[in-house]
Design brief:
191 residues, five-stranded parallel beta sheet, binds adenosine monophosphate
Length: 191
């Protein structure tokens, strides 16, 4: 199985690139942000709790996220070609748990790091906010999310780098140029 972690700051293009990867490689796409937003939309008590956290640009607890991933891995069909993890892991504790959950199933994952300059990230998210309807695509929350990213998520890249399961790519390019870089990496990993 070809398991990819698409890592990058909020607004780095993880969702867009995931769509390209799904189209070419037929991998299963798990966006934890999408799963959480669906829970909010369903209006459950858990959804209300999550809504308060996401709207502040904070992270949902590791325990909840790890349980969600375990459930997702259990639901994968036998003919699954691999998974794109989009938005997970976001902390080193989540990365350690993912490594263990995958190892239990004789699997591993490689991290692809989408590197994008901060000013572009902010512009992209402000623009997305005009149509996304997302409660967290506003300047105040964007700044908070970027801080959380630098403090809690950036160390995840080091975790995979130390395990030599890491590729960094230049995300300051057109969507097609970014995908071309990802495509090259996936061709290497496939063999
Ligand atoms: P995203 O759609 O990936 O930008 O995620 C939107 C928000 O969902 C994040 O700012 C977090 O509040 C929450 N979230 C998504 N994935 C995770 C995760 N792996 N751990 C904790 N919180 C998450």
């Amino acid at each position: 199985m070809l398991n990819i972690i698409l890592c990058g700051a909020p607004g780095s293009g993880k969702g867009t690139q995931s769509d390209f990867i799904v189209e070419k490689y037929g991998l299963s796409h798990l966006s934890t942000g999408d799963v959480l937003r669906a829970e909010i939309k369903a209006g459950t008590p858990l959804g209300k709790e999550i809504d308060a956290i996401i709207s502040k640009g904070q992270l949902v607890s590791d325990d909840k996220m790890i349980a969600l991933i375990e459930h997702f891995l259990d639901s994968l069909s036998k003919d699954c070609k691999g998974v794109i993890f989009d938005g997970f892991p976001r902390t080193v504790a989540q990365a350690e748990a993912l490594t263990a959950m995958l190892a239990k199933r004789n699997m591993s994952a490689t991290l692809i790091d989408l590197m994008v300059e901060e000013q572009s990230l902010i512009e992209r998210m402000i623009n997305r906010g005009k149509t996304s309807g997302r409660a967290d695509d506003n300047l105040e929350t964007i700044k908070q999310r970027l801080q959380v990213f630098h403090r809690q998520t950036a160390p995840v890249a080091d975790f995979y780098l130390e395990q030599r399961n890491y590729f960094a790519i230049n995300g300051n390019k057109s969507m097609q140029q970014v995908f071309a870089q990802i495509d090259n990496i996936l061709q290497i990993l496939k063999h």
